[in-house]
Amino acid sequence: LKHSVVFFEVEILDAKTKGKLCFLDKWYPTRQSIRLDAKGKSLKDEDVLQHLPVGTTATLYFRDLGAQISWVTVFLTEYAGPLLLYLMFYFRVPFIYAPKYDFTTSKHWVVHLACMCHSFHYMKRLLETLFVHRFSHGTMPLRNIFKNCTYYWGFAAWMAYYINHPLYTPPIYGEQQIRLALVMFLFCQIGNFSIHIALRNLRPPGSKTRKIPYPTKNPFTWIFLLVSCPNYTYELGSWLGFTLMTQCLPVAFFTVVGFFQMTVWAKGKHRSYLKEFRDYPPLRSPILPFVL
Amino acid sequence: MVLDAQNSKISINGCILIAPSELVSDPVVSKRHPIHHMTWLYFLTQINTFDVFVDASVNCRPTGHSSFSDKVRVPAGAFGHAPPIVPRDSERGAAPWVTTPCAAPRPVPAVSCDRAPFSTCPGTMASSEDDGAVDEKETNNRRRNRGAIATAWLTFYNIAMTAGWLVLAITMMRFYLQKGTHRGLYRSIAKTLKFFQTAALVEVGHCAIGIVRTSVIVTGVQVCSRIFMVWFIASSIRQVQSEESVILFLVVWTVTEISRYSYYTFNLLHQVPYFIKWARYNLFIVLYPLGVVGELLTIYAALPIVRRTAMYSLRLPNKYNVSFDYYYFLIIAMLSYIPLFPQLFFHMLRQRRKVLHGEVIVEKDD
């Protein structure tokens, strides 16, 4: 067997115009998408030309994904906003409420509790972004940061305005309601954190392998028996607790909108689990046990 | 890879291809063997974990064995032999493709092995590493051919709406000719207007179930803005009903809707008179801005009344811990015309260029 050198001819065409592009040095790597089919999926960074189903002449299509921004940056920005904005309303910074209320504090203890819970929630998210999460993708399109920040910051300001308002009305059922809500909130926060840790441990650092998550010794992860994405389940539970605690309609809206979005994500994740793993546990639902 | 020259079988990763025995000799050597200018077999031996792609066409003898023209792409440079030339899909027509199953962890443009008459594959398609985007194309492909029932319903709906808006137009004209003034005109058509404008919600359903190829969101936004004008401005705030701006937008809406629904009706019957098409794609240039002016003036006229009566507003304190001020809501609604109107207008202009300048008619709502 003699080994001869094989030369590949690589022609890079623009996916939209089908014109030939020769140089890719105008666009930085994270915004380049190279695919074998103009309308198909992007090839991965790890793909090797030799291992692809091409002959001696490979035709690749290039698409510019637009300006990119890293996931970590987006997460940090979108979570820092609510944390700071809520505190501004809590401390009744001037120009929000009537001047006679500037820098006063609410007389309802549930308002202080709510501030602590809200701040804890977003601190937890920030710390998880820095130390816990392992991201599959490095970047996302730049315009996402505006979209996401508008959503998070907008809702945080809307909620905080009413909860910290001088004319705030505490929950109808008083202490009982607040206690129950607090228990629910804390339970779900711990649960959410446990799931994040469990998911992190599935994947060794730097790798992008995907595995089925299973319940561990931590009782909060036993929900994996029934649900594919329990982090979303617990997140819903936390916000339901917060809604109950504050009895504030904007918080309820935020919970509902978040639930819709998380359900969409959970269904997508569930579907891709089913596609990828033949032996995926059949009892699991995407986000709500048995229901959704 | 197993070669069984006697039985003329080559088994590659479980796929069995049958080839005429004279072609199969040395499994290591790639061959190019034109036979009867249509059949040739060449193949490369497997390379470790590569998919083995084999191009194999069997001579079509008139013996009942149908021509086995399965082919698969061939990776280049296997084992140092001259890489074979791989004919592209387009050259071979719609030959079904066979892939070796399971070995490749990448999306291979292949069909199930059942298609090939003489091949069997034990496994399934290569699993994709990506996140379920495989069926994104399928979900984008709405049913092009609506059923007969859907077409009948749509025709009926569009005729009914055309008739409804015609009735509105005629009633308005008669009122004005008889009374000579526009005062009281709105009250006389209020019920009919509410009925036919609210019925447009059905169109959102059409988009949702796919019998009309338009975005649900775009249609939804438009219908909602119309319903908002009718129910929450004009009908609920008596004092604005005598404004001239109300007549302005009513006239604009009437003309637009009549031309739009009649266009759809004729479209479904595949016979669009040119003047209807002309009307639909040209009148909007004047009517659209006029309609926006009418609507904005009406909302502007309503502002003082809303502020004075605090209608639809909820103040603190209340047990839901929320407040709503209809006055500021209306101001925000007026401001939202600024980004939305140009987008819709230029969308219609683009549609107009496509439709009137002879390109493919895209049946898109505006």
From TrEMBL, chain A:
Q: List locations, semicolon-separated.
A: Endoplasmic reticulum; Membrane
Q: Give the membrane topology.
A: Multi-pass membrane protein
Q: What is its main location?
A: endoplasmic reticulum
Gene3D superfamilies according to UniProt: Phosphatidylinositol 3-kinase Catalytic Subunit, Chain A, domain 1
Specify the 3-oxo-5-alpha-steroid 4-dehydrogenase C-terminal domain's residue ranges.
139-292
Question: What's a GO cellular component annotated to this UniProt protein?
Answer: endoplasmic reticulum membrane
The record places domain TECR-like N-terminal at 26-64
The domain of life for this entry's organism is Eukaryota
The GO terms describing molecular function are: very-long-chain enoyl-CoA reductase activity
Alphabetized UniProt keyword annotations:
Endoplasmic reticulum, Membrane, Oxidoreductase, Transmembrane, Transmembrane helix
Q: Which family does it belong to?
A: Belongs to the steroid 5-alpha reductase family.
**By what name is this protein known?**
Trans-2,3-enoyl-CoA reductase b
- Species this protein is from: Gadus morhua (Atlantic cod)
UniProtKB/TrEMBL annotation, chain B:
Q: In which pathway does it act?
A: Lipid metabolism; fatty acid biosynthesis
Per the UniProt record, which EC number(s) apply here?
Answer: 4.2.1.134
Q: What class of enzyme is it?
A: lyase
Locations listed in the record: Endoplasmic reticulum membrane; Membrane
| Principal localisation | endoplasmic reticulum
Q: Which reaction does it catalyse?
A: (3R)-hydroxyhexadecanoyl-CoA = (2E)-hexadecenoyl-CoA + H2O; a very-long-chain (3R)-3-hydroxyacyl-CoA = a very-long-chain (2E)-enoyl-CoA + H2O
GO cellular component labels: endoplasmic reticulum membrane
Q: Where is the signal peptide?
A: none
Please verify whether the record's keywords include Nucleus. Answer: no
InterPro entries, alphabetized: Tyr_Pase-like_PTPLA
What is an example of a GO molecular function annotated in this UniProt entry? very-long-chain (3R)-3-hydroxyacyl-CoA dehydratase activity
Source species, domain of life:
Eukaryota
Q: How does it sit in the membrane?
A: Multi-pass membrane protein
Q: Which family does it belong to?
A: Belongs to the very long-chain fatty acids dehydratase HACD family.
Q: What does this protein do?
A: Catalyzes the third of the four reactions of the long-chain fatty acids elongation cycle. This endoplasmic reticulum-bound enzymatic process, allows the addition of two carbons to the chain of long- and very long-chain fatty acids/VLCFAs per cycle. This enzyme catalyzes the dehydration of the 3-hydroxyacyl-CoA intermediate into trans-2,3-enoyl-CoA, within each cycle of fatty acid elongation. Thereby, it participates to the production of VLCFAs of different chain lengths that are involved in multiple biological processes as precursors of membrane lipids and lipid mediators.
Protein name per its UniProtKB record = Very-long-chain (3R)-3-hydroxyacyl-CoA dehydratase
- Organism per entry: Gadus morhua (Atlantic cod)
- Lineage of this protein's species? Eukaryota, Metazoa, Chordata, Craniata, Vertebrata
